[in-house]
Design a protein that fits this description.
- With 273 residues, this protein is of the alpha+beta class.
- The chain folds into 2 domains: 108 residues, RNA polymerase, RBP11-like subunit (Gyrase A, domain 2), CATH 3.30.1360.10; 126 residues, RNA Polymerase Alpha Subunit, Chain A, domain 2 (Beta Complex), CATH 2.170.120.12.
- 22% of the residues lie in helices and 37% in strands.
- It contains 5 helices and 14 strands.
- The strands form 4 sheets. Strands 3, 4, 5, 6, 8 and 10 form a 6-stranded mixed beta sheet that branches. A 4-stranded antiparallel beta sheet has the order 1-2-14-11. A two-stranded antiparallel sheet has the order 7-9.
- α1 packs across α5.
- It is elongated.
- The model has no long low-confidence stretch (mean pLDDT 93).
Length: 273
């Protein structure tokens, strides 16, 4: 099994999984969706009662229930360093919460204003500030205030979707196209292809973007068999994006590591049976 990277950006990736099987491709997809650990806000403490700011009294009240605000905070992508943080139940603190397993954020805002994700202040390294700072949390009117302490911990999407790093994870068979003989109506083929796979060069129809082909067979239909469409059932074109908690490269690397470890543990259990 080999991987050929086609595109690698901070939050998205496109690659070809070669010499593999549909079962392995699906296992990799499910691993990226469900088994990549990341930090997410899991506990939120709300201050109750009046708040005095420079002699002006604000009421700890918002238009939304506390549970809704907590849910919104939980969905904010939290930057994650997999080499620094660990799961609470595996931490030396015994799950009480410490710098090895917990990130503490404070949020203190007074209306009128829109509370944004960027208003979360990490109590620690500034590197722990959330990257998407424009996510709206709640709208505060004049006299309203919110004072919050939020605890982010490690988890996976098997527990809750707020711990899901990768999204839009999908794959397809590697397409194949063959121009069997000179196409009589190349302009029609170019027009009917929804992914603009074909182009004209030196007066001849050529394949320009094979990877983009979705094997819809439109070209095969309009060319009356002058073009043959197929797929390689051992190669898969993958693409996915991340929420920003981890980079796309980190997600792919961690998915391969988790998949390998799971396979090793399964083999050990079979051998011990």
């Amino acid at each position: 099994m080999d991987i050929e990277i086609l595109e690698m950006a901070e939050r998205k990736c496109k690659f070809i999984l070669k010499n593999s099987t549909p079962a392995m491709a699906n296992a990799l997809r499910r691993t990226m969706l469900s088994d990549i650990p990341k930090m997410a806000i899991d506990k939120v403490e709300f201050h109750l009662g009046p708040i005095d700011v420079n002699g002006k009294e604000f009421e700890s009240i918002t238009p939304l229930f506390d549970e809704i605000i907590a849910h919104r905070l939980g969905m904010v992508p939290v930057p994650t360093d997999l080499n620094t943080f660990t799961f609470q139940d595996k931490c030396v603190c015994g799950g009480e919460g410490c710098p090895n397993c917990t990130i503490l954020y404070s949020l203190n805002k007074h209306g009128p204003c829109t509370v944004l994700s960027g208003d979360l202040e990490p109590l620690g390294s500034p590197d722990l500030r959330v990257k998407d700072e424009e996510i709206p949390i709640v709208e505060l009117a004049d006299g309203q205030s919110v004072l919050i302490y939020a605890h982010a911990v490690m988890g996976t999407a098997r527990q809750h979707v707020k711990w899901q790093v990768a999204n839009g994870v999908g794959y397809k068979y590697m397409p194949t196209l063959e121009i069997v003989k000179e196409v009589s109506e190349p302009s029609l083929v170019i027009e009917k292809c929804p992914k603009h796979v074909f182009a004209m060069e030196d007066g001849k129809l050529v394949i320009r973007n094979l990877i983009d082909c979705i094997t819809c067979r439109k070209c095969e239909e309009v060319s009356n068999g002058e073009i043959k469409v197929g797929a390689v059932d051992t190669d898969f074109v993958f693409k996915f994006e991340t929420d920003g908690s981890l980079t796309a490269e980190q997600v792919l690397s961690k998915a391969a590591e988790v998949l390998s470890q799971n396979a090793k543990e399964f083999a050990e259990k079979v051998a011990a049976f």
